[in-house]
Amino acid sequence: MEYETMIGLEIHAQLSTKSKIFCGCSTEFGDQPNTHGCPICLGMPGVLPVLNHKAVEYALKLALAVGSEIQPRSRFLRKNYFYPDLPKGYQISQYQSESEPPLATGGSIEIEVDSHTKRIRLRRIHMEEDAGKLVHEEEYVPEGQSLFDVNRCGVPLIEIVTEPDINSPEEAYQFLSKLKQILVYLGICEGNMEKGNIRIDTNISVRPKGAPQLGTRTEIKNMNSLHNLQRALETEIKRQVGLLERGGKVIQQTMTWDAKREIIAPMRSKEESHDYRYFPEPDLVPIEVDKQWLEKLKADMPELPTARRRRFVQQYNLPEYDAEVLTASRGLADYYEECVKSGASPKMASNWVMGEVNRVLNEKKITPQELSVTPESLAELLQLVSNGTLSTKIARDVFAEMVQTGRRAGKIVKEKGLVQLTDRGKLGEVIDEVLAENPDQREQYLAGKKQLLGFFVGQVMKKTQGKANPKLANQILQDRLRG
Amino acid sequence: MSFSYPEGQTSGATQLPAYELLAKISKGEITSTQVIETLLGQIEKNDQQINAYLLVLRSEALEKARQIDRKIARGQKVGKLAGIPVAVKDNICTKGVRTTCGSKILENFVPPYDATVIERLKAADAVLVGKTNMDEFAMGSSTETSYFGVTKNPHDPERVPGGSSGGSAAALAAGEALLALGSDTGGSIRQPASFCGVVGLKPTYGRVSRFGLVAYASSLDQIGPMARNVRDCALLLQVIAGHDPCDSTSADVPVPQYLSALRKGIKGLTIGLPREYFAEGLEQEVKSALLSAVERLQDQGAEVEEVTLPHTEYAIPTYYLLATAEASANLARYDGVRYGFRVKNPPNLDQMYRRTRSQGFGAEVKRRIMLGTYALSAGYYDAYYLKAQKVRTLIMEDFQQALQRADVLVTPTSPTAAFKIGEKIDDPLQMYLSDIYTISANLAGIPGISVPCGLSSHGLPIGIQILGRHFDEETILRVAYAVEQNVNWPSTEEKTKKEM
Fold it and tell me: Distance between CA atoms of B112 and A120, rounded to whole angstroms?
């Protein structure tokens, strides 16, 4: 029997504000444990939270980007549970009910599936604070003990919940890539899954294709990479389908993904049976979002990937593929546009940015903005190619040197005497030499072995240390050999 | 009928009102050091019996007093409360000074920060003399739930001082303090003020920063001033009131000059008497003391009208659902993980939580945590918490309407004078009823003040409560001042003047 899969995702994304959501502590990742704490994020007696408005602004940017309905007034609630990484014994969060709307509801994100566009609807975007971290496994932790690190306590999070519109692990992957791209484009999340910037939980159910009712869903927690998400979903689909095939039933439960062993296992029932006793947080006033604020945010919104991709196709006359690659990150797209603005031809710039530039970025694991070759500098190099001063081959060498030394193309070309040989007379002399030195090949060519043209061009290049203009060399060679 | 402090409990400088001492200190007629020394002498003499203080900052207070004296001697500018001693309820965080909330669970807790009100007191050059006893986590009306033992009422040591700010009230009544801070969630400033014969004001919700006040019920808690007379109470309010960016619920509303307001008199003010507050449960002598005070207000030109607050009977149940719900979350942080009491060698995390909290909290606190947890539980939320919120809105509207007609409302502060220690401690419902007239002001967020207006047949003080409009502390202070100036016994000021 054929089955269909329904997947809903619940994503927690860390907002990249400088300070925490309810106090002034730094959100810096990777520092020594317990270096970013204060009485407020430690939940000491008598302290009060004060909302970081930058965090609200960041969340609103996402809401605007995905077309969510923004609530003019929403509240924070307390989500009550005991755990040692939760200093107050409650998490300040939001909720979704008739009386307690979250910051934003609805909206959607488009993904590409089998070369058509599919819309994944969002249920809500809400704000909350992160919990701290418990450390058990490091060697400095005594046996049977846990240590508490406050650094992450109170880092601002947004929770993004989708409708169960996702029908395959591949679509889930696409959705997350797209979401991550938007988050990074908006400059509101670093999007680094290894650092825990984005964390994913998922609901999943299967049913015989066309069945009127939804299947029983399970929840999977703890997937910290796109790869793990895909693997976990694949495994769970197989498990659920297997159960149904054998006439069994799926039980509604929470599972956890063990990335090391690549298995899925139910969580202990105790860990999932919570009554969180939500109620409005009396220490904070409601979040009020007025029109003025929204208008200001809208005016400051960066162009989003999809819009930018479409514009690149139109404005620069680029193939879809180029536009897609160039707009994959805001940094790369900015780099490309700067380069074109500085005088490079759009298609040539595209080839170079997708090729040489991207290769170096990947090798060095750096961002376009960290590259020693500025977009202006690349444009200068490309102009030398367009006007025939440099061959593409030589330009590549020059680029490599620019990457290493950070010097400008013009200087390198001048110093090394790399200017392309385009003088008909001079090039003719070299060609005559080559023909004279290789009489056998010349005979063979004239006898019809036309593919030897490449050999002659190669010889010319060798003699000129690659400086000969290949087009011109070709032309003169063909002229001479006609004779 | 005459009102006096118990024999031998006040002497010398500390009998003067704070505002007079303030003038004398700044003129160099008396030093802050002398005032503090006298006060410390009073504490030493009386507090063994009264148990108003959980901690006396003897050397710190003297050091601070000397500093201020030096400043004054050099002619430097000093703050609004320069050299005046202030006692602080032990649920208000004081940097480097143990803050227990009257609980075993915070027995050794030393906050690394000052509450905003403490910062303001320090900036005003006030001298912190000590931390006062209270019902554990401010949950109680008698100071009997304190882990550190009950505080005695200076008027009759067999009786309670009221609560939860019983330590602050008793310290004032026993001459062990000139000014004190309390906190009021359902009457915790006003009811002990009434029982101890002193003045206590609960400001409008949002008037005084709650930052550093250990939370009991966040939407109801307010810190407020307590003093031996209305002027001193106004003086202290002036220093602590005002917007604080560290408390999102504090209001950015201008703070008027309270002291100058007192002189305005009450001519032309309309005083509302809520009909529901004179029903059953009100002791006859409390009622007559109150009514005679009201007559004297009329004599001074106030008009009296009966008003109605129809939802009064729901105030206590509403309060005990909302306050306990908030408390159940507010007190979740006392889990033994980061600070405070933790049981030794629990076998696992669950047992660490259970045992720490079972042993760290007293019976009343546990009762309220359980009540609040229940009220918020799935399936009960709508019937209890949500419904209570709706009733709270109705109660607020009652007051809005009543205070459209009347400038202030006048009511008893508590149905009875101070009761005996042990009399109600095993009967929570009886205990809760002693706040029946004060609780509504917290639900409505309006300001209220209790000021002495007479004595019972046992010689115990009886308080009158004056409630006002949001952020209109000015008018309730005016009326309280008028009550104070016209009581049938020599007021504290007059009495001390005679004795000097």
Answer: 49
Contact criterion met (CB below 8 Å) for B144 and B136 = no
Asked if residue B116 and residue B181 are part of one domain, the reply reads: yes
The Cα–Cα gap between B326 and B210 comes to: 15
Query: Which residues of B are part of the catalytic machinery?
Result: 89, 164, 188
**How close A77 gets to chain B, by Cα (Å)?**
11
- How many folded domains does chain B comprise? 2
Q: Are residues B226 and B330 in the same domain?
A: no
Q: Is B373–A282 a contact, with Cβ atoms under 8 angstroms apart? A: no
Q: How many distinct structural domains can be found in chain A?
A: 3
- CA–chain centroid gap for B288, Å, is 25
pTM: 0.89
Task: Provide the CATH number for the domain around residue B138.
Answer: 3.90.1300.10
- Residue A133: Cβ within 10 Å count: 15
The answer for A 263-282 residues in CB contact with B (under 8 A) is 275, 277-279, 282
Pair (A354, A439) in one structural domain:
no
User: Domain for residue B7, yes or no?
Assistant: no
Closest CA to B466 of B235, B194, B217: B194
Picking from B93, B111, B249, the nearest residue to A283 by CB comes out as B249
ipTM of the modeled complex: 0.94
Per-residue pLDDT of chain A (483 residues), as tens digits, is 899 999 999 999 999 999 999 999 999 988 999 999 999 999 999 999 999 999 999 999 999 999 999 999 999 999 999 999 999 999 999 998 888 999 999 999 999 888 889 999 999 999 999 999 999 888 888 888 889 999 999 999 999 999 999 999 999 999 999 999 999 999 999 998 888 899 999 999 999 998 888 899 999 987 888 889 999 999 999 999 999 999 999 999 889 988 888 888 888 665 556 899 999 999 999 999 999 999 999 999 999 998 999 999 999 999 999 999 999 989 999 999 999 999 999 999 999 999 999 999 999 999 999 999 999 999 999 998 888 788 888 899 899 999 999 899 888 888 877 777 778 888 888 898 998 899 898 889 888 888 888 898 888 888 887 788 888 888 888 888 875
Q: Which chain A residue lies closest to B216 (C-alpha atoms)?
A: A46
List, as own/partner pairs, every contact residues B66-69 make where C-beta atoms lie below 8 angstroms and the sequence separation is at least 24, other chains included: B66/B32, B66/B33, B68/B25, B68/B32, B68/B125, B68/B127, B69/B31, B69/B32, B69/B33
The domain boundary residue, chosen from B391, B423, B442: B391
